[in-house]
Amino acid sequence: MAGRIRWTAPFTWLGRVVRVPGEERRSLVQITKAAAAAVIAWLVATSVLKLPQPFLAPYAAVFLVQATVYRSLRGWAQQVGAVSVGVLLAAGAGQLIPSMTVALGLVVFAGLLIGSWRGFGDSGVWVGVTGMLLISYGNATEPVLLADRLLETALGAAIGAVVNAVVLPPLHGQRLREATSRLASAIGDLLEETAALVRGGEPVEAADRLHEGMRDVRSLVSDAEDAIGWTRESRYLNLRRGREARDEPLANLISLWSPLAQLIDAVSEAAQSEQPFRHPGEYARGVVGELLETLAEVARSGDPAKQDRCRALVEEIDHLLVTPTDEVTTSIGLGAMALPARRLVQRLEAD
Questions:
Q1: Using 50, 70 and 90 to split pLDDT, how confident is the model at 349?
Q2: CATH 2.70.40, domain 173-349, yes or no
Q3: Whole-angstrom Cα distance, residue 285 to residue 103?
Q4: Do residues 97 and 84 make contact, with C-beta atoms less than 8 angstroms apart?
């Protein structure tokens, strides 16, 4: 069975590419573009410019088909800069150091050291690698070949960046939509569990489960922040940026994290306290419980009618807090729950 699963995995992956416009399809598009960029770079270098053995041209082209257009263009500048420094190091070592072995070691050491400068980004390793290749191939003493290596790298990198920018430039809307769906569902589930604890229908141990749920939501918030970062970056210099998904709904869900954590801390404290005055009375708990359940529905669907109901329930809680009844006046717990609940309502309304 395990062998059959391994053999069929590629076909399953291709099936998802055909059926679902998700990560697999985006990966296939980028892979195809990288292959096309490598072929174009090779043809231009060999057939047009007549460069001898221009292996760096397709190599650079492949690496410049990045996840965003902005990264491709930034990578082009970084890679050309890194290769230029590597060429200069190799040229200097080839002229000044008679021993190839010594020159190789010094060029690699100096190249990797210089390449660690953050301005080179991920291309910094090219400083040492370029110098190493030129020294080991015996090109370091031939200025024409050094110039060829620099030209083919710049050419390949430029072709890779242009292909990525012009041919279906990558967008990350699908990642954004998936992160929004996951986070909205997790927040909704957590609000419903909190509502059950507030109403008193759950054992006190349920407070521990709430904190476990909070850790899960916090992890999803981190994923959501990454998705927003990728989406915003993908808009830079992107010809298809008008088709990119809006990130405001997900950013709004992320903003719920702070009041949600405060609310769960207040509910847990009230549920676990041995002092009755800290826990709201039964009627007040019912109002808060309904508010949290309605907020869960709003988080998942954004239903305006449910938002109106949330506002009405918040007003009722405010009324309970100022009404001099025996049930409420001694309740610290209701006041502690009311403020973060109000903030949740306000931030969901901002969507």
A1: confident
A2: no
A3: 77
A4: no
245 contacts 177 by C-beta, under 8 angstroms: yes
**Predicted confidence (pLDDT) per residue in 104-138, tens digit:** 999 999 999 999 998 898 889 889 988 888 888 77
Task: Give start and end residues of each alpha helix (H) in the chain.
Answer: 2-19, 23-43, 56-63, 69-96, 100-115, 125-136, 143-166, 173-199, 206-235, 248-254, 257-272, 282-301, 304-322, 332-349
**Residue 172: DSSP 8-state:** -
d(CA 38, CA 45): 11
Residues 134 and 299: their CA atoms lie apart, in Å, by 59
Residue-wise pLDDT for 171-186, tens only, equals: 887 888 889 999 999 9
How far apart are alpha carbons 336 and 284 in whole angstroms? 13
Per-domain boundaries in the chain: 29-166, 173-349
Contacts with 86 (C-beta within 8 Å, 6 or more apart), sequence order:
107, 111, 126, 127, 128, 129, 130, 131, 134
The upper half-sphere exposure of residue 56, i.e. CA atoms within 13 Å in the direction of its Cβ, equals 26
245: left (phi over 0), alpha (psi -120 to 50) or beta: beta
